[in-house]
Structure formats: C-alpha cells, structure tokens
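Posting this for the archive.
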Amino acid sequence: MSGNWQKVVAEWQGGPGYIGKNDHGGSIKIGAIDGNPGVGPMELMLLGVAGCTAVDIVNILRKKRKHLADLKVEVRGKRAEEHPKIYTEIIIEYQLWGRDLDKKSVERAIGLSEGKYCSASAMLAKSAKITSEYVIFDSEILD
C-alpha cells in the first residue's frame, strides 16, 4: 500500500476479545479477553478524538511558548437508539494545567485543533454534533 493508506488488524482472541495492532508495533485490547475488560470499538473512536486533539493542543501551545504542565481530554459520546447506533452528540472537555495559561491562547489552540487539524473529530462531525468546553488550572511546571 502506498500513499495515505494506514493499516490495522484485529486478531480474534476467542469470545468477545480481539487484539488490535498497527504496523508500528502498537497494540490495544478490544473487548473482553479472559474475563478482563478492554476498550470497545465505539470507545476507540472517542479515544481517537481525544488523542488526536490532545496532540494538537500540546503542539500548538508549545509553539506559542505557553507553559503547559499537563493535559487531560475527556470525550463523551451519545449514541443513536437505532442501529447502527452512531454517535449523534459528542462533548470534548479539556482540562489544562500550567503556569499563566491564558484563555485566548487555549481557545485558539482548541479552535485550530477542532476546526483544522484533528481529522478524527472532523470525520465524526459529519454525523455528530460536537461541542467542547475547557477548564484551566494554575500549576507550576515540573522539570
């Protein structure tokens, strides 16, 4: 495969469990394996949004020389009642810790991620209403 193709594989582990792998050696447990819970397929989509936008936010704030100590991105999704039970509503909550993080810079970083860079949220926005909120906590930078 050439171009912009990416490949993952889900290997059945028996019962409702799979191991998802990518070509770079990354893996994740999908469903339950040996009675231990993993991440569900639809939750993986929300994690994709969380990870995608988190990478953007960190990169954008670092480029702006903002002092970000920590970031947590919580994504909640509401699914349709009928099959295929797609997400109809998604809420992204950003929790940022840092010294002198200003509202304007954080809002700009979130806007750039959600409006330009995060392909995961752009794709899901075609079927779901996506809203976001954020909270800034003052925190010293740990070296």
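The chain has a mean pLDDT of 94. Residues 20 and 123 are 21 Å apart (CA to CA).
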